[in-house]
Amino acid sequence: MARPSPRPAARDTRAAARTRRPPRRLPLRLLVPALLLAALTAMLMLRGYVHSEILADHRIRPEAATGTVPRRILDGGPVIDTRHGRATSLRIPDRRLVLTFDDGPDPQWTPKVLDVLRKHHAHAVFFVTGTMTSRHPDLVRRMVAEGHEVGLHTFNHPDLSYQSERRIDWELSQNQLALTGAAGVRTSLFRPPYSSFADAMDDRSWPVTRYIGHRGYITVVNTLDSEDWRRPGVAEIVRRATPQGDQGAVVLMHDSGGDRQQTVRALDRYLPALQARGYRFDNLTEALGAPSALTPVTGADLWQGTAWILLVQASERLTGALAVCLALVGALVIARFALMVLLSAAHARRVRRRGPRWGPPVTAPVSVVVPAYNEATCIENTVRSLVAGEHPVEVLVVDDGSTDGTADLVEVLDLPGVRVVRQRNAGKPAALNRGIAEASHDLIVMMDGDTVFEPSTVRELVQPFADPRVGAVAGNAKVGNRDSLIGSWQHIEYVMGFNLDRRMYDVLCCMPTVPGAVGAFRRSALEQAGGLSDDTLAEDTDVTMALHRAGWRVVYAENARAWTEAPQTVRQLWSQRYRWSYGTMQAIWKHRGALLDRGSSGRFGRVGLPLVALFMVVAPLLAPLIDLFLLYGLVFGPTQKTIAAWLGVLAVQALCAAYAFRLDREPMIHLVSLPLQQILYRQLMYVVLLQSWITALTGGRLHWQKLRRTGVLRAPGPAEPRQPRERADAMSTTAPGRPVA
């Protein structure tokens, strides 16, 4: 018999292994921001809930017939008791008045009403809503402490005649929960929203009243309606609230829902006038000679109510703080846009005027250091673009322990002036320092192994060194692979953010970063700054700040263009920006001592560091509030104003971006994707920055992560080998000196 094949068993083993494989979990870098966003969203939802922006229903429908309402109820008193399966009504005894106030408590008017009641030694019944009670529990506590009774007026103030029993139960329980948390009591009194007199009961409201009684509540309507909500004047309010003869009554007033100044003034006149006629102002149960409607709550119910109030108060304070932060962010965004536009315009006028700006042209040879680690896919394009340049250069490719044959590929090219320096893998700062040590010239250009220079880039980059005060020059880094959507978004970011920022910082003499893709340094300046350090993950920002502290000027050369291959996937972009933002935080912290320095170092510390921290760390961290409140406004309103505000912000950003594109002489077509960038791309950057903050605060250590390159950039020039006919035709359509993606 043939031996069975082992393959099925192996396949079963692999299947079992897959079965035993633990489920994939959300990465920590996403989990913490997701939890924070969920908590913030929950707080905003809670705020919308207690501000009657969720589940509120303020509709009032036409009155219905009265065929099912008992005559004794229609002709009876304002207190309706349908508990225990029977329906009775009670009237208020003569010379007794029960003042009732609806819709509160209000932080402005309820204290004034309470002050007037205390002044005249009168009691009242406050029918409070759950939303207002949750937001102002201290006022409810004061009501109970001063001897007033409190009744329920639902949570969200809907018309219960058109609600289900489930909704009614929910309105009652939530209202009771808020009352318990605010004052530690329960109440048996209830007044339906939009109710009036007993004879106004109809076939819609009567079933609600009966159901309310089955839930253990007494329904209280009114005998006299002051109609103070109309604000008819103090005298008219007093007239409407005054009973005929010696009749007792339940009087309806309001301590919330608008301007209640007339109510307060009328109350101060009404109370002594009626007391002079022999009337007493009692609670409802005092007037009826019944036990108090309020009963203390203990145990789990009390804890639950207290927890509810604490959560609501936390949401109120949090959203208040968020509103302040939002205003701060708005001011920062506007200030940044204004600074960028004004100072960038000044920079453009200064650098584009005719005549020499820096001094005699710099023609001395330059050493170009290219740190390379596994750059085989793009190193040839990089080196050829340097050899094809207009300025004499010495090219040093420092191979930092590549495993893909990067160094061998460069050596096989055998290009003039190109030298390979090999070292064991030690990181980018070490590779750059090795290249500086091996360089033959005093001016040193640094670039990444995935970057392509135009023929004029090096020449433009070194001209500012004619000024002996200049220690470093930042070039104009551009995205070469901008044909994809994510590449187009990064292109907008580079032109509008990075390069416009550099113009601004140049005018302010506090350039924070010479980009690793295209930058030039004076050797003596690097030596004075201590070379490149591996203390941070942003060695370019670190060394730039060190140069400022050493007293050197750092400037921006807009015409020194370099084309870099931006990340083409979200994961690669995340890794890159995570490193950038975290490294910037490290650099700011490392050079915080500049805040107390003198001279040019102190200028950078007191101008540059705050601007970098404000615009690159703090403002972007708070900027998601704009989008969060946008969603809040879209869901809870006012929707039209929210959309208009967001479109206004987008218009300002579009104008700023268009101006930046004009300065960089870029086609405007890519700005078509700006709205989508603001909706999607910006959110990713927010989460990346938040993750960087979390890493920094928890003391985490982030390591370099190599990005995968495709080598799509090409550099036309005399040193480039002959291309196939199709490729040559494609290249002939591009502008001279521009890379082809």
What does it look like?
This protein is α/β, with parallel strands linked by helices and 741 residues long. The protein has two domains: 71-297, Glycoside hydrolase/deacetylase (TIM Barrel, Alpha-Beta Barrel); 328-721, Spore Coat Polysaccharide Biosynthesis Protein SpsA, Chain A (Alpha-Beta Complex), CATH 3.90.550. The strands form four sheets. The chain has an eight-stranded mixed β-sheet, with helices on both faces. Strands 3, 4, 5, 9, 10 and 11 form a six-stranded parallel β-sheet that branches. Strands 2-1-8-7 form a four-stranded mixed β-sheet, covered by helices on one side. Strand 1 and strand 2 (88-90) form a beta hairpin. Helix 9 (234-241) packs across helix 10 (261-276), helix 12 (299-351) crosses helix 21 and helix 19 runs parallel beside helix 20. Residues 1-24 and 715-741 have low confidence and may be disordered.
